[in-house]
Amino acid sequence: MGLQKNPLLYYLFLFPVLLQLLLLLRSPSPLLGGGASSPLAAQKSALLQWKSTLQNPEEVLNSWNPSVFPCNNWAGVVCNLRHGAIKSINLYKKGVIGSLDTLNFSALTPLRRLDLSFNQLRGAIPNSIGSLSNLIFLSLAANQISGPIPSSIGNLSSLSTLYLYRNNISDHIPPELGFLGKFVYLDVSGNQLTGPIPPSLGNLSMLTILHLQTNHLSGSIPSELGNLKTLNDLGLYENNFNGYLPSSIVNLTSLSVLFLYTNTMSGAIPQGIGALVNLVELDFSDNHFSGIVPPSIGNMTKLKLLNLFSNQFSGIIPAELGNIINLEDLDFSYNHFSGIVPPSIGNMTKLKLLHLFSNQFSGIIPTELGNIINLADLDFSNNHFSGIVPPSIRNMTKLKILNLYSNHFSQSLPSEMASITNLVFLELSNNEFNGTLPGEICGGGALQHLSVLDNHFRGVIPKSLRNCSSLRRVRLSGNQFKDDISQAFGVYPHLYFMDLRQNNLYGELSNNWKLCDNLTSLLISGNQISGRIPPDFGKMYKLERLDLSANKLEGEIPRELGQLSLLLNLSLSNNMLRGRIPDEIGSLTKLLYLDLSANSFTGSIPAGMGNLQDLLSLNLAKNNFNGTIPVQIGKLTSLQILLDLSQNSLSGEIPTQLESLDKLELLNLSHNKFTGNIPSSLSKMESLQFIDFSYNNIEGDVPDFRGTTSVLFTNNKNLCGHMHGLHPCNSSSQGHGARRRSHKVTFIVIFSTVGAFMVLILCTIASVSIRHWRKGRPLEQENIVVMNRNAFSVWNFDGKAVYEDIIQRTENFDEKYCIGKGGSGSVYKVLMSASEVVAVKRIHPTETENPLHEKQFRSEIQVLTEIRHRNVVKLLGYCSSPQCKFLVYEYIEGGSLANFLKSEEGGRELDWAKRVDIVRGIANALAYMHDDCSPSIVHRDITSSNILLDLEFKACVSDFGIARLMQSDSSNWTLNAGTRGYMAPELAYDPRVTDRCDVYSFGVVTLEIFVGMHPGDLISSLSSPEFQSTPVKNVLDARIPPLPETTDAVSDRVIKAIAIALTCLNTISPLSGLTLVRLNRTDITFFPKYPPALFFLAINPIPKFPRTDCRCLSFSLAASPLSTSAMSVGHDNHCSIARHSTDGRSSARCNTSRRSFDRRGEDGRWRLPFTTTSVAAPPDDAPPAAAPPNTALPDTAPPWTKATCAFGFGKKLCWELGLANPGYIRAAPSSFPGTGTEEPEPFLLPFETL
Length: 1250
What we know:
Elements: H1 7-26, H2 39-51, H3 70-73, E1 77-80, E2 85-90, E3 97-99, E4 113-115, E5 120-123, E6 137-139, E7 144-147, E8 161-163, E9 168-169, E10 185-187, E11 194-195, E12 209-211, E13 216-219, E14 233-235, E15 240-243, E16 257-259, E17 264-267, E18 281-283, E19 288-291, E20 305-307, E21 312-315, E22 329-331, E23 336-339, E24 353-355, E25 360-363, E26 377-379, E27 384-387, E28 401-403, E29 408-411, E30 425-427, E31 432-435, E32 449-451, E33 456-459, H4 463-466, E34 473-475, E35 480-481, H5 485-488, E36 497-499, E37 506-508, E38 521-523, E39 528-531, E40 545-547, E41 552-555, E42 569-571, E43 576-579, E44 593-595, E45 600-603, E46 617-619, E47 624-627, E48 642-644, E49 649-653, E50 666-668, E51 673-676, E52 690-692, E53 697-698, E54 700-701, E55 710-712, E56 719-720, H6 738-762, H7 764-773, E57 784-786, H8 799-809, E58 818-821, E59 825-831, E60 837-843, H9 854-864, E61 875-880, E62 885-890, H10 897-902, H11 904-909, H12 912-932, E63 947-949, E64 955-957, H13 962-965, H14 973-976, H15 995-1011, H16 1016-1021, ...
Parallel strand pairs: 2-4, 3-5, 4-6, 5-7, 6-8, 7-9, 8-10, 10-12, 11-13, 12-14, 13-15, 14-16, 15-17, 16-18, 17-19, 18-20, 19-21, 20-22, 21-23, 22-24, 23-25, 24-26, 25-27, 26-28, 27-29, 28-30, 29-31, 30-32, 31-33, 32-34, 33-35, 34-36, 36-38, 37-39, 38-40, 39-41, 40-42, 41-43, 42-44, 43-45, ...
Antiparallel strand pairs: 1-2, 55-57, 58-59, 59-60, 60-62, 61-62, 63-64, 66-67, 67-68, 69-70, 70-71, 71-72
Helix pairs in contact: 12-15, 12-17, 15-17
């Protein structure tokens, strides 16, 4: 009979159940949080108390409610129901703001896992954290924690994982960490830790990962680390370690990753290094290691990366290196290696990158090099290689970068180079090649950079170049090419630099150049070009440099050239041009250099030239101009280098308005028909070094040009004055004895001419004048008056008097006048007069002790005096005496960019438009130094402290060339090589530099300008997955109004500037580093127009130099839509990305070093490896599982329809992958099984399209 039919039996059955439930409710239960002694109740109370002190803008902690059972509904909380306690707290990336001071750790002793990483926790780690005696996992990574690591962490005897990376933790590493015998993962990288590595860390016998990189640790590496037999990954890079590498390092036979780069380690590599047979990645770059490379290194057959860049290694490359057949990246550049490249290098057929540049290698390139069929990047530049390029190079069909710059290669290039159809970058300059360029040099249509300048190439321009629309930068100058320029070149939509100078090109200029929309520099001087300048040249609106000098051009200057509003340099000298200068030239208001000399121009000088107020040099010599000098020329107050109006038919009086040109150094008015007196006001032009009034009809008193090196005035009327060679104006002989005076003057002329000629040879200004007049007549023997000179050589000043004046006014360089200090010297502000202030840089005394370097010092100074650019601080003079050396600069009133950015008020004053203009000014200065100076000048120390701002916020770069003045054997040479945090890694300890060093520093400074502080943490984090989807607006300076969510003119310039900065930091690619791309001439095809809200920092991922780039080059990304992708990384330490289109026909795969991904563990930052295999999740308490072997995706794999599931750090993850923004794959979680662990956020995988 059922219970429903018998109510009595029903209640009798129910009664005992209700009774037990009532008793259960009346008794305290740990599961329900009852009872004062319940662990759960204490934990709940402690967490609620802590929550009350926190800020949580994302309101994730709203679920932490006193009335809610913690084990079911509290975010990030996981309980062990059997023991009635919270065992795991995971608040990874929850936007928590606060400190740990108010967290009662003693109430949380049952806790097994605590993850508070990627929040905004501040303050120190409390000592009470040592009470978490059951803790096995602790992550406080990526917060703002400061103070020391408490020694009480040594009490956490069960701890296996400790992540404290990316904080501001300081002080020493506590030795107590060495007594935590269960440690498996220890990462304290990216902090401010100092002192040595505690030897006690050698006790951690179970340790597999030890990351101490990117701190300020010092001392030697303790030999006790050799006891860590299970260690798999050792990161000690970017510290201040010194001393020798301990020989015990060879005991770490389980090691697969060993990174020591960017320290000051010295001595030789231990001979037994070959015992590390499991090593996959070895990076000793940027140190002081010396000696030979041990032959035993050939035993490391699993190596895929071997980087010894920028050390002091010498000797030969051991032939045993060829045994490392799995090697993919080999970089021995910037060392002192010599000898030949061993043929055995051809055994490394998997090699993708081979860098041997800047060594002393000689001999020929071995034929066996052609066996390396996977090579993509080959750089042998700056060596002593000779002979031919071997024909076997045809086998390197994957080669994208070939750099043989500055060697002794000769003969013709092999025609077999036509097989290299993927070539993007070809640099052959400064060799002895001859013959013709291969006909199919751009047969693959991928070539972007072609530079063969200063060789002996001849013949016609290859036809494949005419149709090579991918070209961006071309330098063919200094050869013997002979071809019709109108037929040899085509239309290049991406081209920004074309240099064809000093060849034998003929024909007429084509209108096709106007179709090169991005062209900024067109240099065709020194050829045989004839005909007229096409009016359509006025449509090249991005043009900045146009040099058509030394050709056979005729006709008039087209008025349309006045439309080139960005033009900086216009040179049409030494042609057969005629007619009047069009008034439209006055519209070129950004012009810095204008040279129209040695033509047949007529008429008067247009008054509109007074609008060119940025001009540094104006040369109108050797024409047929007539009339007077327009008074508007006096408005050209920026003129510094030259004003040359000589050899014309100008007449009238010299206008007094020229006195406004107070920066001018060379004034030439000779061979004209000027009359009247020389205006006495011209003596106020204190910068003048050279003046020529000769061959005119000038008379009267010659002003006292005190401080001027030389004044030429021969063949004029009755000139008089107090200068040597002139009779006094009050002399009685002025009216009598003309013949006797004539003989006397003639004698003085001859005598002074010879003397002055000797002085001019030694004078920098003479070299300037010779440079500008080189294509004209040689200087004639004329009457030269030389001012008093002495051993102190202070240019623009009166020698010893000014030296003594500076010493007196600074009270012998007293500290109270010091306004800045650096590695090379100290800077003092000196008030020379009521209206003249200069900056005096005193070179450190240690730099002046060796007299053997005096000649080198003067030679370098001579080069620096020729630097004249509106964005470069002007060098006014120098002193070189036995007592001291100092340099005299113009004083920039505003102060340094660094001070502006550090100041709250200064930061607000620099709005976005000003910041972009500052970046442009720095870029223009560097481009001038690198491209326009001959030889080019590398700064070596671009920092925000070396960028000065005037009162209008114009950027002026200071200290150009200072590093070159320092003695190479001086004690502070490394200080002068760059500033930590700004210098390119190749500049860290090696004086042999290229302009790429400045480009890297420019990238750092540019980010600093927009972020508002030094971007060190940002740069080191850009390759981390959590930053891959960070909008750039999130890291911009918050002191000024944010950029608008949609694109406008200013925000577009900011975004492009940041994109360029990221490219400059990516110095692994010479395509982005060899030449600085100015902001106003950038080809933005690499950087689509993103509004700030959609621009991600992953737009151009930054691997650490010289890391392997982790971008996948794809030819099909934009061609067809993608439905899914898969990603896997296995024990081969490589990431593989396979993609399939919806039609299943296109796919691409990229294998790159895993260094570009974070290899963390269970801290929420994605830990690769994982495979595309679904497996069951292990228990929560299980240790991290070893990664299964990589599962490669076959080319024939069908497209996935929904999601790809992957196994990673103990969890099964399912991701939906698809095309996001152009060039990106977006990975978003579609399912995430498991309890108590938060779902990961989407991230972007960047791809580059070619």
